[in-house]
Write a structure and sequence with these properties.
This protein has 544 residues and is α/β, with parallel strands linked by helices. It contains 19 helices and 16 strands. Helices cover 39% and strands 20% of the residues. An eight-stranded parallel barrel has the order 2-3-4-5-6-7-8-9, surrounded by eight helices.
Length: 544
């Protein structure tokens, strides 16, 4: 049986940009567009030309894509022809092969928001779409507030859709603009719309997540016959967000009945890069990825309870609904105060540490993990620090160097341009190979920007570690997270540092203290120790 084509329409660069606190630069929009194109979505909505300088600049410098690049705008205003409406003209001048126009399908919004007659609104829809088609462009009509409009006046809501289709629109997209519709309602309404004679292969769905049902509503529309889904990466969007394509795409490819019934532009191979794309977007937004995100979250395949971990070792399908590798994610057996020996032995094996079942060291490691987590440490998010803890208990932690003392100063002063700047300076004294060494470094980078006291500490520590310094040249800190673990006068600070090297390895370490600098330095020391131990291990393997 041949599969039906289902089209994916991404609006991250337009509706996603309407997320509170989100504003993409032109370069970032181009980067995201390229990632979406590589992923295999069918349409990329680049923004609203003329609405802001960034969107206009993006279309002027638009990347070449296999996906249909789409400009967004609104139907012409009453009292103007489509040819003479300057707002519509800016959208047309973007030169995209497709144009998506939003228009009113709810009679209340026509009379109260637009302040025009119902007939005038239909004429505006028809004339605008006809103008797009006459220019050889593919036309899409976003029927705004459709589900509310269909509830209050179904005849008019349908008339708005027919006006667009009769004028030549390729797609009419039913929009749950306020995000209040539920899946059963969406399924029923889309079914009724198709029953009136509007073909499903011309219908799209655009949902918002105000009831946490955007993905479910999108799937309900598809089940009823709609053949285009609009959404955003990571569910970005106005208010509570849009339908999350990061969840929809793997569901369509990996879950029945969708996998057998539909073909989408995203291949199984491209699906393997989905986690990377999701995290790239969070990196651009400078925000911590949601660990609990479906499919792509760091905790999506984390098995913390000992009972779960034991079963996973026997058969991953016992607690995993899909193979994490299929979306570029990975299984994690974290260590925590809920861990059992199954978790522990699995993690030790992954770290290259072989411990026999029943070894007394296992209980000691578990006890120490539980004690330390009670103090504020978190080993399920800092696997490298856990490995070092286990090595210490097993007597397999080589003596590399000893920190004798360190000091950090932060100075606020005027530079030669009479601007106030901050400068951090760190002094670290270590003992390496029986010799004391003192290193000094500051936080100023090559551009003259202050990188902070932790950066100064890292540079000073790595600067003079004798024979170890060369092994650390490719190491860099890629993320730094601070959390207050307790309230009141007993509050302590937890610092998680993510590090990376030229080989693509990434590892996380943790430090805890009432003093943020001490917590940071502890995490930094663990990161360096882990790197050196694994460097030595790799050298030993090469020598064999």
């Amino acid at each position: 049986m041949s599969r039906e084509r289902l089209y994916l329409y991404d609006t991250t660069l337009r509706d996603g940009q309407q997320t509170q606190g989100v504003q993409f630069s032109t370069g970032e929009k181009k980067q995201i567009a390229q990632a979406l194109d590589d992923l295999g979505v069918d349409y990329i909505e680049g923004g609203w030309p003329g609405a802001n300088p960034t969107d206009s600049a993006f279309f002027e410098q638009a990347p070449a894509t296999k996906a249909t690049l789409t400009a967004f705008g609104m139907t012409k205003r009453a009292g103007r022809s489509a040819e003479n409406d300057e707002v519509l003209a800016a959208v047309m001048n973007a030169g995209t092969s497709a144009v998506c126009l939003v228009g009113k399908s709810h009679d209340y919004h026509v009379t109260h928001a637009l302040g025009v007659s119902l007939e005038e609104n239909l004429e505006n829809i028809c004339a605008s779409v006809a103008h797009i088609v006459s220019q050889g462009r593919e036309a899409l009509f976003d029927a705004e507030h459709f589900f509310d409009g269909y509830r209050d006046n179904p005849e008019y809501a349908l008339a708005a859709c027919r006006a667009a289709l009769e004028a030549g629109a390729r797609w009419v997209v039913l929009c749950d603009t306020n995000g209040g519709a539920l899946p059963s309602q969406v399924n029923q309404v889309v079914s009724e719309v198709i029953a009136t004679g509007i073909p499903g292969e011309k219908l799209g769905i655009h949902t918002h997540n105000d009831t946490e049902n955007a993905v479910a509503c999108s799937l309900a529309a598809v089940e009823a016959g709609a053949r285009q889904i609009q959404g955003t990466l990571n569910g970005l969007g106005e208010r509570c967000g849009n339908a999350n394509l990061t969840a929809l795409i793997p569901t369509l490819l990996l879950k029945e009945p969708y996998a057998s019934q539909f073909e989408i532009g995203v291949t199984q191979q491209a699906l393997g890069g989905l986690t990377r794309v999701s995290r790239m977007l969070d990196e651009i937004l400078n925000r911590v990825p949601s660990k609990q995100a479906a499919y792509v979250g760091a905790s999506a395949f984390a098995h913390k309870a000992g009972l779960h971990a034991s079963a996973i070792l026997k058969d991953p399908s016992t607690y995993e609904h899909v193979d994490p590798a299929s979306i570029g994610n990975a299984r994690i057996i974290p260590m925590s105060n809920q861990a059992g020996q199954s978790n522990l032995r699995k993690r030790l094996t992954e770290a290259g540490l072989s411990v026999e079942k029943g070894d007394p060291a296992l209980s000691r490691i578990l006890d120490r993990v539980k004690q330390r987590e009670a103090e504020g440490y978190s080993y399920d998010t800092a696997q490298a620090s856990f490995e070092l803890l286990a090595r210490d208990e097993l007597g397999q932690s080589p003596e590399l160097f000893e920190v004798k003392r360190y000091k950090v100063t932060v100075e606020r002063r005027k530079n030669k341009y009479n601007r106030m700047v901050s400068l951090s300076e760190a002094v670290v004294v270590v003992k390496v190979d029986g010799e004391k060494r003192l290193s000094v470094s500051e936080s100023m980078d090559e551009t003259g920007s202050d990188r902070g006291p932790v950066n100064a500490l890292a540079k000073a520590l790595i600067k003079d570690l004798g024979r170890y310094s060369a092994q650390l040249e490719d190491m860099r800190l890629v993320d730094f997270k601070v959390r207050i673990t307790q309230g009141g006068t007993e509050a302590v600070t937890r610092v998680i540092i993510d590090s990376e090297d030229a080989g693509g390895r990434r590892w996380s370490t943790v430090g805890v203290s009432a003093n943020i600098i001490d917590a940071s330095f502890e995490a930094l020391l663990d990161a360096i120790r882990w790197k050196l131990i694994h460097h030595q291990h790799a050298e030993a393997l090469d020598a064999v």
